[in-house]
Amino acid sequence: MAEHTVKAFESEIGQLRGLISEMGGLAEVAIADAIDALIQHDEEKAQRVVAGDKKLDALEAEVDRLAVRVIALRAPMADDLRDVIAALKISGVVERIGDYAKNIAKRVGQVEDGIKKFEPLTLIPAMAEIAQSMVRDVLNAYAARDATLAVEVID
């Protein structure tokens, strides 16, 4: 493969990783903001979470387009193909995390008097913290290409 082709391919893989990283950061913030809106009964913040989900949807579509382009034009093999397929799968999962945050935010107006009077909600902030930590750790493992860290997240 010519050097300029290799550089272009590596640039595209870097773009995919950058998009995944951006999506992960947005999803992590969306979870935190949705839970905060739920706890504080902040409908304005909840609406921002709902509106922000469109950005995650757009980034997922961009990952899809770029991955298809890379596969079609570069015909990656072995590890390179696994990188592209991983980006496709991860973007879908991260987008779904954003959807979950959006769904939590949509319920803020339905929970009267916030978290203090509804006992099952008292556990949600701790659960959200664990989920955020898992999202952060798995995306860090992906960015660092660290399989050991990814397995630790599963455990």
Write the layout of secondary structure elements.
Layout: H1 3-40, H2 43-74, H3 78-106, H4 124-144, H5 147-154
Protein model, in words:
- 83% of the residues lie in helices and 0% in strands.
- It is an all-alpha fold.
- Helix 1 (3-40) runs antiparallel to helix 2 (43-74), helix 2 (43-74) runs antiparallel to helix 3 and helix 4 (124-144) runs antiparallel to helix 5 (147-154).
- The model has no long low-confidence stretch (mean pLDDT 87).
* Protein structure class: mainly alpha
Summed over residues and divided by their number, the pLDDT gives a mean of 87
> What profile does the largest beta sheet have?
none
Please state the CA-atom Rg, rounded to the nearest Å: 18 Å
What is the succession of H and E elements?
HHHHH
Q: What is the overall silhouette? A: elongated
Number of helices: 5
How many strand elements? 0
C-alpha termini separation: 40 Å
Please bin the fraction of helical residues.
over 70%
Strand content: under 5%
Low-confidence stretches: none
